[in-house]
Structures are given as structure tokens and as C-alpha cells.
Design brief:
Layout: H1 2-15, H2 18-82, H3 88-109, H4 116-139
Helix pairs in contact: 2-3
């Protein structure tokens, strides 16, 4: 049975010269090597794309850090104001202006096309900030957007 399977190959090999036989065998051994090399290179390229996306994400986080710090400081000032520190109102207004400037800077430098999911998350954070800002400006009292019973309420 093995003779029947190998008979066409032995017939072809017997008619070839030594140089042609070596070239044919070399090609047969190169096929798996080429496939392996292709898979290795495509895997490395995918990893490079992922690392670039991570680098962009780190840059975005670095740009967002000042915003997060300013919002935390704003929260502290508002807490003091709501607990009776009337002097904090001017500093709250100044902090709100700083935050508005940071938002403009973040919006202008955001890479929307490269990380669309991250931009959607940023828009959500920005909208929550704007809701809190309008809430505080509306009557001098902070009305949180959180439902009762949820942390932060």
C-alpha cells in the first residue's frame, strides 16, 4: 500500500538529475520554514501594534492626571464651602476655571481616532463634571447625580 502512495513521487524523482532533486527537496523543506516565519512575523507585528496602543493610552492618562487632581481639589474646596467655609467660594471659582482650561487642553489633544473607546469614557467623565458644575452653579449647593444609597450620595 505504501508503494502505491509513493509510486508517483519515486517515478518523478527517478527522472530528475541530482541538482533538480536537491532543489525539489530544498523547496519542500522551505515551505514549513516560510510558514513558520510568516506566523512569527505577523505575531510580532500584532504585538507592536498593541504596544503602540498602550503607549498612546499612557500618554492620554498622563494628560488626564492634572484634571483628576484638580477635580479632587475642587471636591475638597466644595466640601469645605458646604460645611460653612464661605471664603472657599473664590477658590472654587478659580479651580473651576482651571478645570475648564484643562478640559479644553484635553479635548484638543485627544486622539479620538486611535482610541475611540477611551474617548467615549472621557466624554462620560466630562459630562459628569459638567453636570456637577451646573449643579453647584445653580444654587450654591452641590446636588450630586448619584442616586440615594450609592457611594458619593
Amino acid at each position: 500500500m505504501l508503494d502505491k502512495v509513493l509510486n508517483p513521487f519515486t517515478y518523478i524523482m527517478s527522472r530528475l538529475k541530482y541538482g533538480q532533486k536537491f532543489a525539489g527537496i530544498s523547496l519542500l523543506f522551505m515551505i514549513p520554514a516560510v510558514i513558520t516565519l510568516y506566523l512569527l512575523i505577523s505575531d510580532q507585528l500584532a504585538e507592536i501594534r498593541q504596544v503602540k496602543a498602550q503607549q498612546i493610552g499612557v500618554e492620554q492618562v498622563r494628560d488626564l492626571m492634572p484634571f483628576m487632581l484638580q477635580v479632587q481639589q475642587h471636591r475638597g474646596l466644595v466640601n469645605g464651602y458646604l460645611n460653612g467655609n464661605a471664603d472657599a467660594k473664590d477658590r472654587i471659582d478659580a479651580k473651576q476655571q482651571e478645570i475648564a482650561q484643562l478640559i479644553e487642553n484635553i479635548e484638543s489633544g485627544f486622539r479620538k481616532d486611535e482610541l475611540p473607546g477611551t474617548y467615549e469614557a472621557w466624554v462620560s467623565v466630562r459630562n459628569e463634571w459638567e453636570a456637577l458644575y451646573r449643579s453647584f452653579e445653580g444654587g450654591g449647593e452641590l446636588r450630586t447625580p448619584f442616586p440615594p444609597g450609592r457611594p458619593g450620595a
